[in-house]
Amino acid sequence: MKQYRVLIDCSDKKGLVYKVSKLFFELELNILSNHEYVDSDNNKFFMRTVVEGNIEESKLTLALQTELDDDVNIQIVSPVKKNIVLMVTKESHCLGDILIRYEAGELDANIIGVVSNYDLLQPLVEKFDIPYFCVSHVDLNREEHEAKVLECLAQFKDIDYIVLAKYMRILTPTFVEAYNKKLINIHHSFLPSFIGANPYKQAHERGVKLIGATAHFVTNDLDEGPIISQDVINVNHDHSWRDMQRSGRDVEKITLSRALKLALEDRIFVEGNKTIIF
Amino acid sequence: MKQYRVLIDCSDKKGLVYKVSKLFFELELNILSNHEYVDSDNNKFFMRTVVEGNIEESKLTLALQTELDDDVNIQIVSPVKKNIVLMVTKESHCLGDILIRYEAGELDANIIGVVSNYDLLQPLVEKFDIPYFCVSHVDLNREEHEAKVLECLAQFKDIDYIVLAKYMRILTPTFVEAYNKKLINIHHSFLPSFIGANPYKQAHERGVKLIGATAHFVTNDLDEGPIISQDVINVNHDHSWRDMQRSGRDVEKITLSRALKLALEDRIFVEGNKTIIF
Amino acid sequence: MKQYRVLIDCSDKKGLVYKVSKLFFELELNILSNHEYVDSDNNKFFMRTVVEGNIEESKLTLALQTELDDDVNIQIVSPVKKNIVLMVTKESHCLGDILIRYEAGELDANIIGVVSNYDLLQPLVEKFDIPYFCVSHVDLNREEHEAKVLECLAQFKDIDYIVLAKYMRILTPTFVEAYNKKLINIHHSFLPSFIGANPYKQAHERGVKLIGATAHFVTNDLDEGPIISQDVINVNHDHSWRDMQRSGRDVEKITLSRALKLALEDRIFVEGNKTIIF
Amino acid sequence: MKQYRVLIDCSDKKGLVYKVSKLFFELELNILSNHEYVDSDNNKFFMRTVVEGNIEESKLTLALQTELDDDVNIQIVSPVKKNIVLMVTKESHCLGDILIRYEAGELDANIIGVVSNYDLLQPLVEKFDIPYFCVSHVDLNREEHEAKVLECLAQFKDIDYIVLAKYMRILTPTFVEAYNKKLINIHHSFLPSFIGANPYKQAHERGVKLIGATAHFVTNDLDEGPIISQDVINVNHDHSWRDMQRSGRDVEKITLSRALKLALEDRIFVEGNKTIIF
Known about the structure:
The structure is a homotetramer.
Chain A: E1 2-11, H1 16-26, E2 30-39, E3 44-53, H2 57-67, E4 73-77, E5 82-88, H3 93-103, E6 109-116, H4 122-127, E7 132-134, H5 142-154, E8 161-164, H6 173-178, E9 183-187, H7 199-206, E10 210-217, E11 227-234, H8 241-264, E12 268-271, E13 274-277
Parallel strand pairs in A: 5-6, 5-8, 6-7, 8-9
Antiparallel strand pairs in A: 1-3, 1-4, 2-3, 9-10, 10-11, 12-13
Helix pairs in contact in A: 3-8, 7-8
C-alpha cells in the first residue's frame, strides 16, 4: 500500500470534488483525509487529499491529468523526507529548536546544510554532524555576498525548503526568484506591526502589551510575503526591550517550527499574498 | 436559489464522498463549503456540506436516502433561525452576552423564553421583551421542581436548544433524556479539572496559574458530556477566588456564546463522549 | 476605617519607599497592597499603595505633601464610583458588554450618559434607564459636530472617563485636549497594525493568522496614544473579513472592559506614550 | 557595586516595608526593583527586592537580622549561576530546549550533570560536554533504583535545583525529602486534569479542546505540589493522542524553561501548596 498527498488548485467550477472522488473510487484508493476550500472572492478551489492504495505515482498523475482540465494544478507528493537548508546569522534559538527536533527524528526532513554569514554557530551545528558553510559578508557588497551564498547553495541539487532561521540579511530579488516559494522566514514581530530593523525596540517604544512572531514565505517586499503562522506572548511595562527579545525568542522558534511542519506535510497553498492551510 | 446544510455520518466505507458529490453534481448544486472527517479509530465518517441550488428539501432528502445506504444518518437543514430557551439562576453575564447578541441580530435564533429558579433576572430579560418564567425550587425536592420546569418547557413546541447559561442546579436523567443532545451547558472550569461545586474556590486552593471554562452537551454524568469549546485566562497568586470568579466570567460567556454559534450553524457532530466540529 | 489608593510618581531618587512607608507606619495605616516600578531608562518612579486606617483624606494628603518633595505627583483616591460617559456609533457589542456589567453591579462606575451620532442604540440604552443623547453629524462639518458634542458633555460636571465604545468618528485636538487622559478608546486591531479605516478588511487582505484589539488612551495622533490592554484571537483562510469582524467583536469588548476596570481601580499610570499598570 | 536579591517572608505585621526600606536607605542601597504581596487569608507577607550598593553580603544579612524579628525568613542571594542537575528518561524536547539555552549562555546556571534511567540521551548530552549518568532501573525495585540515583547525585556538592525534564519515574518520599523545594517537574497536562499515566491518552478520550502542561515543585503526592507555570494549546477532533503528544511537547518545554528561569532568578516563594511569583 502506498500513500500520496494529492494537492489540487484551480478556478472553481461545479463537479470538481465529484470528478476527483470518482477517480479515487475507481482507482480503489482509500481517502485518509480530505480538505477543500473555495475562495469565492477570487473563484478559486483548493483541495488536499491523502489517499492510500496500490498504484504507482506516475499512473495516479496520469489519471488525474486525464480526468481534470488543463488549467488545474495537480501535485502528487509521496510522504518522504524533504531536503532543507537552514540559514542563520548569530542567534541559535530557532536553529537549536530545529536541530533538537531533527535529532529526535521528529522532523520529516534531511537537513543537508546550514549556511551562515558568521562562523559563530558552527560548533553547535557540527555537534549534530551537519555540514556548516560560513559565507562571510565582510568586505563584500550585498550582490557579491549573495552570489557567494547562491554558489554555496548550488552544490545541493534538490532543496525543498530554505529556512531562514534568524538570517538577518535582506535578500535581493535574484535570490528570492531563485528559490521562489521555497524560502520560509521568521520575522520577530507580529506582522504587519514593526516591519524592518529591531522590532523589539520598536515594540518597547510603542508600549505594546503583546509581542509576536510571524513565519512567512519570502517575497521581494521586506517582511511581506504570505503568512504561514503567527503567535504572541504577553509583556508589560516591566519588560525592557531586551526582556521582550528574550521572551520573543520562544515565540519565534515555536512559530517557525510550526510553519516548517506545515510545509513538510504539504499543507500550505499559496494564493497571491495569502496562504490556505489545511 | 436555496441553501442547505447537509450533514452525513455513518460507518466509513469507500466511495462515500464520491456518491454524495456525484449526487450534488447531478442535482446541479453548488458546493459552498465542504468538510469531512474520518475517525479511523472507530471507523466513522462525518461530512458537512453547504450546497446551493434549485431543489426542494424533500426532494434532496429523498435523493440522498436513495443514493446512500440505510445505516447512513442524513440531516438536511435549512439555515433558518432556531428556537432556543435559556435557563439561568442568578448570574447575568452569560445571559446578558446572549441577549446583547440577540438584540443586535447577531444570533441565528429566536429566544422563545428564559426559565429560572429565581426571579432575580426577570427585569433584565423583560427589557428585551422575552418571556421569563420563574419556577422556584423552594420547598420542592429535585424531582418535584424538575417536573414543574418540564411542564413549563412543554408549552414550547419546537425547542432546538436549551442553553444552560449558568443554571446552577443538577439535572436528573429524566430531564436529560427529554432534551437529549439539545442541552448546552457552561461549566466554570477547564474540565475535567474541578468538577462539581465552586470550581473557582477549588482552583484558588490548588494554586493554578490559568483558569478556564467549558461549554458542553449535558449527559447524565455531572460535568461530563461532549465538550464543544474551552478557553482559559491567566491568573496569579494575587487573585482571590472572587477575583478568579470575576475574570472567569468573561471566559465563560465567550466560551458559551461560541458553542451556541457552532450549534446554531449545525457545525457539531456528537460521537460518543466527543464532538467533531467543522 | 477608611481605604485610600495612594498614587505617587516622580523622578527616581533614593529613599522614596522609605519616606512613604515611614509615613504610613507613623499614621498607623495598614498597607493592603503595594506596587512599585522604577523606569531606569527615564529615571522615573511609580508607586500605587492601597492603605487602610483612621485618617481623613485631607490630612493624609497634607502629610504626604509635607514629607515628599514638591516635584512629586501625589494622588489620593477614595474607592468610590467614578462617573463615566459612553460614546458610541452603531455597534452595540462594547456598549452592551458594559451595560450588562453595570446592571450586575460589577462596574465601580455611574454611567451618567451615552452620547452617539446616531439614534440607533437609543432603545438599548434606555432599557437600562440611562440618558441617551443623539448628536447627529448630518449636515455638519467635523468642528461643528464636535462643538455640539462638547456642549452636550458640558452638562455633566464631573466626568472621570469617557469611554469610546466604538465611536467611529475622529476627534479633533480640541476635544482631546478638553478631556486629556480621560478618553479611553477601543481600536479594532492589534495596534500598531492596521491603523485607520476598516482594520478587518486590511487584516483580511494581508492574510494574518491572528486578529486583535487595542484599548488605549486617546491622543492627537490617530490610533496612537498609550496602550492599556491588547488581546488577539486566531483566524484562518476560511474567515471572510466579515467573519473576522464578528470574531473580533468579542476581543474588542473584553479588551475594552478590561481597560475600563483598570482605569476605575486607578491602576494605570501614563508616562509619555506608555502605560505602567499595577 | 554589588547586587543582591533580598527575599523576605513572615507573618504580616505593620511596619515591615518601613523597616526594610529604612535599612536599605541607611545602608545607601539603590532599590532596582521591589515586589510585595500580602496574603490576607493566611496573614503572610512576602517581599523580593533587588538592591545595589557597596556592602558585603554578611554585613547586609546581619543588618537585616538585627532589624527584623526572629520569625522573619531572610534570604540574601547574589545573582550568580546556580548549579542544576537534569533528570530525563527517553524524550529529548525539554532537555534539548534547556541545552540550547545553556549553549547560548541564556541560562543563569551550570548544568553539572544529567541523570537518566536510560542511555538513550547520552549522545545528545555529551555533544554539549555535560557529564551523563545512566542509572538503569532494570532488575531493581523502586527503592534500590532510587538509592543508586541518590548515590549518583551525592557526588555533586551544591545542587540548587534538580529539573525533572520528563523523568518518567515516580519519586519516593525519601527522594523528595532529600531535595525538598529543589525538585522542579514538568507534568504533561494542565493540572489538576489528567493526573497519572499518559495524560494525552486521557485528554484524547475526554475529547478536550485544549491541552496543557504544568511545571511544579515536587511533593509527595503524585502530580501535586506548588504550581509554578502552566500553559495550553488548542487541539481539535482531528488530533490523535499522538498528535496531542507532539503538540504538547512544545508547551511542555516552554513551560518548564519558563519555570526554571523564575527559579534561577529567585522569583518564587512557596507557601503551602501554592507559589507566589514576582
